[in-house]
Design goal:
Order of helices and strands: HEEEEHEEEEEHHEHHHEEEH
Bound molecules: zinc ion
Strand content: 15-25%
Number of domains: 2
GO molecular function: DNA binding
Pfam families: Cas12f1-like_TNB, OrfB_IS605
Radius of gyration: 24 Å
Number of helices: 8
Number of strands: 13
GO biological process, one term: transposition
CATH class of the largest domain: Alpha Beta
Helix content: 40-55%
Largest sheet: 5 strands, mixed
Strand order of the largest sheet: 9-8-7-10-11
Protein name: Transposase, IS605 OrfB family, central region
Family: In the C-terminal section; belongs to the transposase 35 family.
């Protein structure tokens, strides 16, 4: 334990020295309940009994712990150090695990996934995940936030922080749920997944003011990241396709025009009259690009003639 303690202090100074390019001007301070690193000699898991044995200053102690289903799988591949930390009235362990990834499946077909505003995700199979619950929570919080912000007291600030934390966790759960369903579907049907390469969506997408509040309340990047890493573990290939014209191109006749997209939800082709849900049309376009990329090994996008 003493060695760990020294190690932590040294690490802290090392990091500080790196940040300030060699000058350490102030003494580092440590909180009583700051995170403590443990290695495998000091902390072992008994998965059957769901208990862990941990070295404390008073000797070894056996403590029961809780872990979710995916965490249980990951724990079988524990590697390296863990961090013990205290948050919201309970102790947590951050455990490093090196989960082996499955061999990439060879796919001929691809599921296109459009990440949207009204529908959080729409697949080219026609499945969509709406964000109604998320929006309700967000709007309720927004109203409460406005009220609390006006107050501006310390108690109000604390409440604000608590609320935003709860909302974040709720969103994260939703993102886990949606990404799991999509990746499982791809795996089961032996297909890859195509997503738009949306590195700059916040700046680029044109959205009404009313939608913008909802929009910024949703973490697309998290959903995309969750799909990507779950796919990686499951051996499902992911194709990132250029987002240009995916929402303006008619999936029936290849015609590209901005006016094809009537509203956030409606798509109606100006040339052939084909109508569709805008997100579903986009998902099918994304699928097409994903299939082309899968077949040619090259990134291809739509070009306006
Ligand atoms: Zn058309």
């Amino acid at each position: 334990m003493a060695i760990r303690c020294i190690g932590k202090v040294v690490d802290s100074y090392k990091v500080r020295a790196k940040q300030s390019k060699g000058n350490i001007d102030t003494a580092r301070r440590f909180r009583l309940k700051g995170a403590v690193p443990f290695d495998c000699r000091m902390l072992t898991f008994d998965m059957e009994k769901q208990r862990l044995s941990i070295l404390t200053l008073e000797g070894r102690e056996e403590i029961s712990f809780k872990v979710g289903e995916s965490g249980r799988v990951a724990l079988q591949h524990q590697k390296g150090e863990c961090d013990l930390f205290f948050s919201r009235g309970a102790f947590f362990l951050n455990v490093c695990c090196q989960v082996p990834v499955e061999e990439k499946i060879k796919c001929e077909d691809v599921i296109g996934v459009d990440l949207g505003i009204c529908q959080l995700a729409t697949t080219s199979d026609g499945r969509s995940f709406d964000g109604k619950e998320i929006q309700t929570v967000h709007q309720r919080n927004q109203a409460a936030r406005d009220g609390l912000q006006k107050k501006g007291t310390r108690a109000a600030k604390r409440k604000l922080k608590k609320r935003s934390g709860r909302e974040k966790r709720f969103k994260k759960n939703e993102n886990h749920r949606i990404s799991k369903i999509i990746v499982e579907q791809a795996k089961r049907t032996g297909r890859g997944i195509a997503l738009e390469d949306l590195s700059g969506i916040r700046n680029r997408q044109r959205v009404s003011k009313k939608l913008r509040s909802r929009f910024s309340g949703w973490s697309f990047n998290q959903l995309r990241a969750f799909i990507s890493y779950k796919a990686e573990i499951a051996g499902v290939p992911v194709f990132l396709v250029p987002p240009a014209y995916t929402s303006q191109r008619c999936n029936e006749c290849d015609h590209i025009e901005r006016r094809n997209r009537k509203t956030q939800n409606e798509f109606q082709c100006m040339k052939c009259g084909h109508t569709d849900h805008a997100d579903f049309n986009a998902a099918k376009n994304i699928k097409l690009l994903g299939c082309r990329q899968s077949a040619s090994g090259r990134v291809v996008g739509f070009i306006r003639q």
